[in-house]
Design a protein that fits this description.
single chain; mainly alpha; 3-stranded antiparallel β-sheet; 15 helices; 6% strand; elongated
Length: 403
């Protein structure tokens, strides 16, 4: 038998410290569970306490890293391991250096008596408002393992949603880059050779050929300024988007854009309903939930609609009314939310909406890809074809004259 010093928290969040005599750590955990105490640290008296070395921060933390960490943490908590021991193990085996350093610091803070949710507040760039709020709700309700499992599923589904949209844009982006490179090479290096040849032959050139040669001369002598201009335009738009007015205008235009706007709307609805459903089912008050969700909307128009809904609830009204008035959310979504409010099963209804719109995003991505691919190929063909025809017209003219 050995004596173990422990630190833990009751279901009400009250800190408890003490000593227990047991055969091993597992028996201490079992004894504490009978007392309804969640252990955060268990140390054998007289034993040397292990100290973690702090890795240096480097690089960001991806959604995938966070999802793996959260799922592993959930499994360990569910198996009955003390919170501090879980964090110690995860800090040593996490590959991402930034996340490993953050987890090591979390372990030290929790061991010093801080709640896990409070410790997370020191790392806002890794653990956002949603993550911290759910963890706080899990600690308060004594269901941290369940909450962490929900969080890992939420992060994974959000990753899948982002992945679908990114994958849809890869092929069109490659086509656009190739088209720009091909046209630039033709204008700057190939067409000047033809232009010199036509000059040596003499004679009047067709209007199409003159236009292309003029464009080629402009690009050849102003290529640097052209690149600077394009880069300046991109940076200018990005900076303008960083302003409140610029973001409002660009986000509103994107929502109204054909095909793309519909995909953005469906993606936002899926993200909004899944996040809010996860928060409500985990015990987070709906006003706090809407405030958190608005920050993750990704579109200022949708963010304002959510905040208006929050204001409506604070005044004793429903969520569905302001969402319908915003005309941002589809009527079916508004009606299903209204049914969920009426029946008292809003979290379940939000989950069903999210599942439906995940499928809608899949269909939207397929539709966007189906439209973009042939459109870009046709565009590339027309541009290159125009340049080729413009260069060969004088040759055909000369051949006809010789014949």
């Amino acid at each position: 038998m050995a004596t173990f010093a422990y630190v833990g928290r009751t279901q009400q969040g009250i800190l408890r410290k003490g000593e227990l005599t047991a055969k091993n750590r597992d028996e201490v955990v079992a004894l504490l569970r009978k007392q309804k105490i969640l252990p955060t640290s268990i140390r054998e008296k007289g034993g040397a306490e292990r100290v973690l070395s702090m890795p240096k921060f480097g690089g960001g933390v991806s959604d995938r890293d966070l999802a793996i960490f959260t799922r592993q943490f959930s499994t360990m908590i569910d198996a009955g391991l003390p919170l501090v021991q879980c964090l110690e193990i995860l800090a040593s085996q996490t590959e991402n250096k930034s996340l490993s350093a953050a987890v090591a610091q979390l372990r030290l803070d929790v061991e010093a008596g801080s709640t896990y949710a409070d410790a997370l507040k020191k790392h806002p760039k890794i653990f956002d408002d949603l993550y911290r709020s759910l963890v706080a709700a899990g600690e308060a309700g004594g269901i941290l393992d369940t909450i962490l499992n929900r969080l890992s599923k939420h992060i994974e589904k959000t990753m899948a949603l982002k992945g679908k949209i990114k994958s849809a844009m890869v092929y069109p982006s490659v086509i656009v880059v190739v088209a720009v490179l091909v046209v630039s090479i033709l204008l700057v290096w190939v067409i000047p050779i033809f232009a010199q040849m036509f000059t040596d032959f003499g004679g009047a050139l067709p209007a199409m050929t003159q236009m292309v040669i003029g464009l080629s001369n402009f690009m050849k002598h102003n290529i640097i300024w052209f690149i600077i201009g394009v880069a300046g335009l991109v940076i200018g738009i990005k900076k303008w988007y960083g302003t409140a007015n610029g973001r409002s205008i660009i986000d509103a235009v994107l929502l109204k854009a054909p095909v793309v706007g519909d995909l953005i709307r469906k993606s936002a609805v899926a993200k909004f309903t899944r996040t809010l459903g996860t928060l409500i089912s985990s015990g987070v008050p709906i006003l706090d939930g809407l405030s958190i969700v608005s920050k993750t909307a990704g579109n200022v128009v949708i963010e304002r609609a959510i905040l208006t809904a929050r204001q409506s609830i604070s005044e004793g009204k429903t969520v569905s009314e302001p969402l319908a008035a915003s005309k941002v959310f589809p009527p079916m979504v508004v009606q299903m939310i209204a049914v969920g409010e009426t029946t008292g099963a809003l979290d379940a209804m939000l989950g069903k909406i999210a599942d439906f719109y995940d499928e809608e995003v899949d269909a939207g991505v397929d539709k966007l890809t189906a439209l973009l691919e042939p459109a870009l190929m046709v565009f590339l063909g027309v541009v290159i074809g125009f340049l080729v025809i413009a260069m060969y017209l004088p040759i055909f003219k000369m051949a006809a004259a010789i014949g």
